Amino acid sequence: MGPDPHSAAAAWQHAHPLTMVLISTVISLIVVSLIVLIRWGVSYKAWGFHPEGAGGFLKDECVRWGAILLPYLALSIGFKFFIYDLHPEWNRPEVWAGFVVVAIVGRRLLARHPFIKAMGRHIDLAKQQAKGAAK
């Protein structure tokens, strides 16, 4: 039998906590950027109906998703640093499940913020106008 792969991974994570935080942060930023760009790209018909055009549509998508996901990202960085560097013994599925619940609730609460809802209304109105014009 060889060494336990889970133990080896946990040891590496504990030995390189900032690397773990950096890797997961970069992956999160890439995923969010792809989500925003895909949502923007598939809505190209609505760009002309947005008050500020394609650039305004992209800005609203960035603000809407950024305002929701950047606090999550900050929470995530802090949590990962806490787990990987300060308390590696807490690196268990049930602790991560608790973090996921908090992150989802936080995201849902932020999505209700009036500023973020206003950005969504701009986007939704432009999409509705584009659908109406296509008919």
Automatic annotation (TrEMBL):
Where are its TM segments located? 20-42, 63-83, 95-111
User: Would the keyword Transmembrane be found if you checked this record's keyword annotation?
Assistant: yes
Q: Recite the UniProt keywords alphabetically.
A: Membrane, Transmembrane, Transmembrane helix
Q: Would you tell me the protein name for this molecule?
A: Uncharacterized protein
